[in-house]
Write a structure and sequence with these properties.
By secondary structure, the protein is mainly α. It has one domain (3-93). The chain contains three helices and no strands. It has helices at 3-25, 32-39, 50-94. The longest helix is centred in the C-terminal third of the chain and has 45 residues, at 50-94.
Length: 104
């Protein structure tokens, strides 16, 4: 898999998890299968309902996973930008004719 594809997939995964997290927080019984699936992400706590388990699953599993995907994406983007700027800087010290920068 190409690195750019991995970056894009991290961003898409993070966006999907943000949506799932929001849907869990505002479910009000409208997404029973989602609540059931989320409740299976944490250990049962006595007689807790699926809803009561889904909320900690959201906080302890989904939100941290979202942060991991976003940090992965941002780290790679930052690394690419730093590498690109370093290459431009090195090239500009060699010969000003070699560097053609497109003004944004």
């Amino acid at each position: 898999m190409e690195e750019g594809q991995c970056d894009w997939e991290s961003l898409v995964a993070a966006a999907a998890l943000v949506d799932l997290s929001h849907r869990i927080e505002s479910a009000n019984g409208s997404s029973p299968h989602l609540i059931q699936a989320a409740s299976n992400l944490v250990s049962p706590d006595g007689d807790s309902s699926e809803w009561a388990l889904a909320l900690p699953a959201n906080e302890e599993v989904l939100k941290p996973l979202t942060q991991i995907f976003l940090l992965n994406y941002l780290t790679r983007i930052n690394r690419e930008a730093t590498t690109r700027e370093a290459a431009i800087s090195r090239a500009s010290t060699l010969s000003p004719v070699l560097v053609v920068r497109k003004e944004e």
